[in-house]
Amino acid sequence: MADESAGPETLARLLARRIVMDGPMSVGAFMAEALGHPRFGYYMRRDPFGSGGDFTTAPEISQMFGELVGLWCIDSWARLGGPGPFHLVELGPGRGTLMADALRAAAVLPLFRDNAIVHLVETSPSLRERQRQTLHPVLGDAVYWHDRLEDVPDGPTVLIANEFFDALPIRQVQKTNYGWFERLVDVEPDSTGDDPRFRFVLEAFGSSGNRLVPDVLREAPDGSVVEVSPASQAVARLIGARLAAAPGAALVIDYGYAHGPAAGDTLQAMRRHAYAPVLESPGEADLTAHVDFAAIAAAAREGGAQSFGVVEQGEWLTRLGIRQRASALAAKASPAQAQDIRGALDRLIDPSQMGRLFKLAAFATPGAFADSPPAGF
């Protein structure tokens, strides 16, 4: 039982006690607890999205984003042969905004809507409730929530994952003149009381670090940091297996790098729309890392799916007609609204904003898109 006389329990105190008893923990373990601890995890207790939260995702910027994702889903479903009923799955659906916008756009093809069974993979009770509020006017009670993708029933699938992989735990390894060592999280000496402070340290012998480093990066300069995400690769492999077993397509949207693996420390914390110290106040800030698209594509192929390159978000949205959609919306809007629409368009596609950093990858049942790649690719 926690010593209440020493102050209320916090995730920082809980993790500090664990480290004192068991030794330093991996970056991935720290990240998993900070984001997903059942009581204190960042995503378990709050709605972090929008101007009142800590960050804003593309669906919250403009309805155009979700609408074009919805049209991509329709096109992919049709090219899969229009199987029905089928599972329309979203991983990490935020407030439900993307799914609501996608389904509104999907009204252009009632057969798609009639055959879609909506599944949301979400572990946060607070976000599930927000998603319920968003989607009830669109779907009523016809939506299913799951903790894991494995719990979604088998069958034909169209899957969306927007800013999902960046929040999955990573492990970090660092090169020294003695070799590669895994980076761990330890407690600062003499700081295990009410307000423990954390620091990065390296493992003692380097066995874990040596195993994690890709061969192409083994000769990187001293001081280099390499990140790997076994959790991301496991999910991508599961998606690949699902698409290999039944007709399906998946769209992954996230920020990261297309040509990996690469060296670099990309772990970051966001709080109130600003960067925060990564190890400060675990559970109070969002922790993310850049996605290695090459690694998740390889994992999806290992699962049995076909992969279709990586395309920058600005290019993909432009190919799907976001400029034309923005013009149509602006033509019916007030001058102030039209200005907002143009601002949202720039934010989504401009290379200096989200247009280049954010990227998309597509996976599908082998041979399902034999005539041409999925829309936008």
Plain-language structure description:
The protein has 377 residues and is an alpha/beta fold. It has a domain at 44-169 and 229-364: Rossmann fold. It is built from 13 helices and 16 strands. Strands 2, 3, 4, 5, 10, 14, 15 and 16 form an eight-stranded mixed β-sheet that branches. Strands 1, 6, 7, 8 and 9 form a five-stranded antiparallel β-sheet that branches. Strand 6 and strand 7 form a beta hairpin. It is globular, with a radius of gyration of 22 Å. The chain starts with 10 loop residues before the first helix and ends in a 13-residue tail after the last strand. The relative contact order is 0.15. The model is unreliable at 1-5 (pLDDT under 50).
The CATH topology of the domain at 44-169 and 229-364 turns out to be Rossmann fold
Number of strands: 16
- The 3D shape can be described as globular
Number of contiguous helices = 13
CATH class of the domain at 44-169 and 229-364: Alpha Beta
Cα gyration radius (Å): 22 Å
Give the biggest sheet.
8 strands, mixed
What is the chains' assembly state?
single chain
In percent, how helical is the residue content?
A: 25-40%
- Percentage of residues in DSSP E strands: 15-25%
Distance between the termini: 55 Å
The helix-and-strand class reads alpha/beta
- N-to-C series of helices and strands: HEHHHEHHEHEEEEEHEHEEEEEHEHHHE
Briefly, what is this?
By secondary structure, the chain is of the alpha/beta class. It is 37% helix and 22% strand.
Secondary structure: elements and pairs:
Blueprint: H1 11-22, E1 25-26, H2 27-36, H3 58-61, H4 63-79, E2 86-91, H5 97-105, H6 110-115, E3 116-121, H7 125-139, E4 143-146, E5 157-162, E6 171-176, E7 179-187, E8 198-202, H8 207-212, E9 225-228, H9 230-245, E10 248-257, E11 268-271, E12 274-276, E13 286-288, E14 291-292, H10 293-303, E15 306-312, H11 313-319, H12 322-331, H13 335-349, E16 358-364
Parallel strand pairs: 2-3, 2-5, 3-4, 5-10, 10-14
Antiparallel strand pairs: 1-7, 6-7, 6-9, 7-8, 10-16, 11-12, 11-13, 15-16
Helix pairs in contact: 4-5, 5-7, 9-10, 12-13
